[in-house]
UniProtKB/TrEMBL annotation:
It is found in: Cell membrane. It is a multi-pass membrane protein. Residues 340-360 are annotated as: Disordered. It comes from Nocardioides agariphilus. InterPro entries: ABC_transp_permease. This is Autoinducer 2 import system permease protein LsrD. CDD domains: TM_PBP1_transp_AraH_like (cd06579). One of its GO terms (molecular function) is transmembrane transporter activity. The chain crosses the membrane at residues 31-50, 113-135, 184-209, 230-249, 261-279, 286-304, 310-329. Pfam families: BPD_transp_2. Keywords: Cell inner membrane, Cell membrane, Membrane, Transmembrane, Transmembrane helix, Transport. It comes from the Bacteria. GO terms for cellular component: plasma membrane.
Length: 360
């Protein structure tokens, strides 16, 4: 009778083989946070980057939509999927909100509610095609990226829609009390806490990790794989719609190119923050640090009079390095214990031979 050895599978909790100090400090998330602190301190001391509250305020105001969309994107990529249509969802939702207010005379609260519902519908389209039809998320969201951008252009039909109610456009960008933090960070923090609790402290979040490790294993473990992915794409559409409303109010305008290129920054931030492009690994605090790191680098380069092409090159390099690291580092961790085990038995006979020689 022969027995077959089960193939090695990745574990959702491999870090628990290490002590608590290693688990907390020796990981990609801590490395990104440390790099963020170093860049911040260097900019503060040498470049006088944060020489006043206005600059920090602009940084949070500029990158709030990226931070918002990175939250559901983290969960989607951990399952092994991706959503490239977030920027187009943002654009078409912003365009729809602007058209409802300017062309159809709807009040801003009504337009906001309908825009959020539109975001849910657009996310549900992606989720249905990926989760229930079984199409690859890369192909689906590339298609909807173009589709939703075309819908935005069809809604606006001109270069720009502007001049929205001043009372609404002022609130997101006003400061919280005497601080240098804009009001938009209140919903950002609330959603970050919600997504963090959902991912790290619920059975739904554990199911997300299990899907990323193996969809088949997750299914036999009782995880509703299709429903989980469907809900995640709905969340992505809802948050992208919220980001679109914010961008519209912040700039007091919406154009056919609103949100173009945001998906690159969102995905780069998520991967830079320690989420594996292959799924099954990642933490939300690392993603938040990744967004802030890209925001600081982007702002520092802009203040150094660097062109937009330099910024795009650096973001692209960070994205490539993140993908390589997510594939290379786990292999290094696997090789080190193997070498230790391989060297262990070879030393034992030598020590025994020496002891026998000593007795003789």
């Amino acid at each position: 009778m022969t027995t077959q050895q089960a193939p090695a599978t990745r574990s959702a909790y491999p870090v628990y083989s290490r002590n608590i100090v290693q688990r907390l400090l020796v990981n990609r998330e801590s490395a990104v946070i440390a790099l963020l602190v170093i860049v911040y301190v260097y900019s503060l001391v040498n470049v006088e980057f944060f020489d006043g509250p206005l600059t920090t305020y602009n940084l949070f105001k500029e990158y709030a939509p990226i931070l918002l969309m990175a939250l559901p994107m983290t969960l989607i990529i951990i399952t092994g999927e991706i959503d490239l249509s977030v920027s187009s969802t943002l654009g078409v939702c912003a365009a729809a909100c602007g058209v409802m207010v300017k062309d159809h005379g709807l009040s801003m609260p009504t337009a906001i509610v309908l825009t959020l519902l539109l975001g849910i519908v657009l996310g549900a389209v992606n989720g249905f095609l990926v989760a229930y039809v079984g199409l690859p998320s890369l192909a689906v969201t590339i298609g909807t990226l173009a589709l939703y951008r075309g819908l935005a252009e069809g809604l606006i039909q001109t270069d720009r829609i502007a001049e929205f109610p001043a009372s609404w456009q002022d609130w997101p960008t006003e400061r919280i009390g005497d601080t240098n933090i804009p009001n938009i960070m209140v919903p950002v923090v609330v959603l970050a806490v919600v997504f963090g609790l959902l991912l790290h402290f619920t059975s739904f979040g554990r199911g997300i990790y299990e899907i990323g490790l193996s969809s088949e294993t997750a299914h036999f473990s009782g995880v509703n794989v299709a429903r989980t992915k469907f809900l995640l794409f709905i969340m992505s559409g809802f948050v992208a719609a919220l980001a679109g409303i914010y961008v519209l109010l912040r700039s007091d305008s919406v154009a056919t190119d609103t949100g173009v290129g945001f998906e690159l920054k969102v995905i780069a931030s998520v991967l830079l923050g320690g989420v594996s492009i292959f799924g099954g690994r990642g933490a939300l605090h690392g993603v938040i640090a990744g967004v802030l790191l890209i925001a600081v680098l982007n702002s520092a380069l802009q203040l150094s009079n660097q062109g937009s092409e330099i910024i795009q090159i650096i973001i692209g390099l960070l994205l490539v390095v993140s993908v390589i690291a997510s594939s290379f580092l786990p292999r290094v961790r696997e090789l080190l214990p193997r070498r230790a085990m391989a060297s262990g038995p070879s030393k034992a006979p030598n020590s025994g031979d020496e002891s026998r020689k000593a007795r003789q």
